[in-house]
């Protein structure tokens, strides 16, 4: 393998990236834009969900309970109604997403410690908003009941602590606020960094469409030299985003970065090698840019949503899907990014995933080199 040949191909590909505006946008700016778009779209924190209240009890206790329910920014009292028909009308028009119906015996049963009779009606056409309302109503109802029970116990002359044998104290490490963005954005980085792989697949297909690939193969440049020379510029371009994207996550979304940046940068280079090798395989087998783009989305971006543990835990997947996920560079890189961003773990834990990225990178490159000349023929 000649270093001079690789350098010539690398220089040619760098010139293509710099001169072709669409390639420059796809490689450098698209990952940044996609991270911003998906971070906002996928990490929306529900707030100010409108609810209606039908209070049949109309007591001081029920009024205090309603105030407890709507305290904070989660739920807003849209309207107090007088009948179920009014609730139905509000739900039909989409004015509220849930309704709370308080039983006429609410305060009496609560003070007698017989429970809290009430009903929650939700809009099933928007289950996420309705479920959010149910969750928060239940949590605040439990808190209200505990406070009422505590008052009753104290009035009876008992100590509250003496009646609570369970002393449960919950501590959340690494993401104390349980903010979805802190977990999701590091995982999204592993997906948006796949755009350079799409670019290299399109570049190979473009040369085949325009007949320039045969001209390159007629030169003394070997097939492995040609592939490596094409990979290097896209790896370098991807590494630019490896620096920019964490800075964006920290500065714009306040995602903590508790690990070593040199380690993150080095392991990201292994990921770029593996994912761009995957793009090389697509470019070798696809004869047109349209086909290369379609297959790239099916092999790189679509599995990035479902097979890398970004939204669904890998341990909960069927066995065949877990095996498929092992062949995806994004699976291992998502574990690396989350591990470095949040708990700040080091290479002593992450080395198996680094080894897998190296193995995948060399495997994909070897397969591409093996079939490259055959596909040209």
Automatic annotation (TrEMBL):
PANTHER family for the chain: MEMBRANE COMPONENT OF ABC TRANSPORTER YHHJ-RELATED, MULTIDRUG ABC TRANSPORTER PERMEASE YBHS-RELATED
Location, primary (coarse class): membrane
GO cellular component terms, semicolon-separated: plasma membrane
Subcellular location: Cell membrane
Protein name per UniProt: ABC transporter permease
Protein family membership: Belongs to the ABC-2 integral membrane protein family.
UniProt cross-references to Gene3D superfamilies, sorted A to Z: abc type-2 transporter like domain
Pfam families the record matches: ABC2_membrane_3
